[in-house]
């Protein structure tokens, strides 16, 4: 069986942290990070607000991300070996791909491929605090969080909800180990025991 699991949600919600735990815990588990598909800086539009528009779907090469997912779907063991993931001989028929990113559920061609979609949230103040300690390849200019990042998060989340996308919400302020336990338990109940 092949399972694609989405770890989506707000910037600095703890997606990468949770994904690392899943990779350590699940058999034959590969990952694709949406952040790896940002377009080059000179292709990022500048908005009327003066900010580079990083937090919109158009800033990502989603066709390339979809191609990567298709390569996994075509041959998970080959994909795993190419990415240094050992294929466990006892579980040859279970393969899991974790997609991790802040705009996972806004790209229609991927939407139906998920077996389970998780969505991490943290309140505005905590998100802003975490973001202020983070250094991206392109550092945030002053005002980006309030002027662009948070408004775009709210917009895409609203669209996701209005579109009826089925997600399991996770409280990103809970301790890391508890979040990992919650997701592993949910995956076992919803997918891995029911195949
Ligand atoms: N459950 C948690 N509780 C508190 N802080 C967390 C938790 N998960 C992650 N963090 C911290 O929040 C920041 C962003 O985490 P990260 O996993 O990189 O988020 P994302 O991938 O969603 O941007 C990091 O400093 C990380 O250590
Ligand atoms: N990786 C990059 O090249 C890059 C550049 C500028 C901004 N970002 C930021 O990355 C964020 C998404 O990643 P996280 O969900 O890991 O925070 C976006 O909010 C975006 O503003 C990333």
Automatic annotation (TrEMBL):
UniProt-recorded Gene Ontology molecular function terms: ATP binding; metal ion binding; nicotinate riboside kinase activity; ribosylnicotinamide kinase activity
CDD domains given in the database record: NRK1
Keywords, sorted A to Z: ATP-binding, Kinase, Magnesium, Metal-binding, Nucleotide-binding, Pyridine nucleotide biosynthesis, Transferase
GO biological process, one term: NAD+ metabolic process
Superkingdom of the source species: Eukaryota
SUPFAM superfamilies on file: P-loop containing nucleoside triphosphate hydrolases
Reactions mediated catalytically: beta-D-ribosylnicotinate + ATP = nicotinate beta-D-ribonucleotide + ADP + H(+); beta-nicotinamide D-riboside + ATP = beta-nicotinamide D-ribonucleotide + ADP + H(+)
Alphabetical list of InterPro entries matching this protein: P-loop_NTPase
Pathway linked to the protein: Cofactor biosynthesis; NAD(+) biosynthesis
Pfam families: AAA_18
Gene Ontology cellular component list: cytosol
Similarity section: Belongs to the uridine kinase family. NRK subfamily.
Protein name (Swiss-Prot/TrEMBL): Nicotinamide riboside kinase 2
Organism: Erinaceus europaeus
Lineage, uppermost ranks: Eukaryota, Metazoa, Chordata, Craniata, Vertebrata
């Amino acid at each position: 069986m092949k399972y694609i699991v989405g770890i989506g949600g707000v910037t600095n919600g703890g997606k990468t942290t949770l994904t690392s735990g899943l990779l350590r815990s699940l058999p034959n588990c590969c990952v694709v990070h949406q952040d790896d598909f940002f377009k080059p800086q000179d292709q990022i539009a500048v908005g009327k607000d003066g900010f580079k528009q990083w937090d919109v779907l158009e800033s990502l090469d989603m066709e390339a991300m979809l191609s990567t997912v298709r390569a996994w779907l075509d041959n998970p063991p080959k994909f795993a070996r190419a990415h240094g993931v050992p294929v466990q001989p006892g579980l040859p028929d279970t393969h899991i791909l974790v997609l991790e990113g802040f705009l996972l559920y806004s790209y229609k061609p991927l939407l139906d491929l998920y077996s389970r979609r998780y969505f991490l949230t943290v309140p505005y103040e905590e998100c802003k605090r975490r973001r202020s300690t983070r250094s991206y390849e392109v550092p945030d200019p002053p005002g980006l969080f309030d002027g662009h990042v948070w408004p775009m998060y709210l917009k895409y989340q609203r669209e996701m909800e209005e579109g009826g996308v089925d997600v399991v919400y996770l409280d990103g302020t809970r301790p890391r180990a508890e979040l990992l336990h919650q997701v592993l338990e949910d995956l076992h109940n919803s997918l891995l025991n029911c195949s």
